[in-house]
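Notes from the 1:1 (GR / supervisor)

We went over the backlog. Supervisor wanted to see one worked example end to end before approving the batch request, so GR pasted a single chain during the call. The sequence is below; no edits were made to it. Supervisor asked that the structure be written out right there so they could see what the output format looks like.
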Amino acid sequence: MVAVIPPASEVLGKGAKKIPERRVRIRLREGVPENTIYVSSKLAGELGIKDAAQVSVSGKKLTLRVLISEDLPEGEVWANADFMRKNGISDNSMVTLRSA
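Structure output shown during the call:
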């Protein structure tokens, strides 16, 4: 009889949706438009990113437009250098990337 009853974690876990997120390096580039980040196509597909993403670091959360690129390494995103410096984010920082 006990083998027929599923565990509580299996029953309750089906309705809960985990928010996908990933820690990546942010690289500052001059050619990127302001308030926009470049994300690799593989990373965007993995996180379900379509047109906007949330970048969070040190308690700061920024919602930015996303441009998907084939040329980027999977573990990094590119952002506008001046815009990120104004928001207190330096080059090569580890940030958390989520779909917005």
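Supervisor's comment: The chain is about 20% helix and 40% strand.
Batch request approved.
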